[in-house]
Amino acid sequence: MDYDFIATESGRRIAYRRQEGAGRPGIVFLPGLRSDMEGTKAVFLAEFCRENGLGYLRFDYSGHGRSSGRFEDGCIGDWAEDAAAAVNELTEGPQILVGSSMGGWIALLLSKSFPEKTAGVVGIAAAPDFTKDFIAAALSPDQARQFKLNGRVELPSEYDDEPTTITKRLIEDGNRNLVLESPLTLACPLILLQGTEDPDVDFRIALRLLEHADSPDSELILVHREGHRFSSDRCLKLISEACLRMVANAAAD
To answer: 7, 26, 72, 107: most buried, per Cβ within 10 A?
Structure first.
């Protein structure tokens, strides 16, 4: 499979795949932490956009997938910069940002920084500000001591054979990019899709985001008994329906 690459101003080499489409706006997929552009939802949206004649961009953050760098060297700010470079360089006009897990946080950061490039945000199990309470919520006392001593800790991953390395830089930079601690004004619609049995992102975070975001049109769809992956057939159908509604809304403006 062929991939193209762009270079960011910081010198990171970002892998991407782009599909042309006659329809406007296009769709950009923002993957989650340790995920990439070949995940189930990213590939599903590629076919969805193909069938509906929509432009589509998917890419890997630095330290992810086929892009340059090591995961443990990255942070939220770096990955937001990677996403901004991809969206601004590789798309024309406003886009619908579809963010999964951490990608939902990145989508919100982009929508704040580049409102003219954002026609809508679809958050799938969106995980804004997950670094803020990470130490207290996710680490055992022994792991917390290890993190304090070494500035890093390795955690087993439910989604990957390799452990996930969490660094002090990731936590501190994330805490400088929080979106729930200050006004969050969006110039576009917001749709949040969330499973009620998500072990990684409690559905109350989605409720808090819905209440906190100042958007002209926002809603939350809770799906009973769905988890964090949000990749079952019914969940993928909800993702496609949300995207179609965003497209229709943009066309009506």
So the answer is: 107
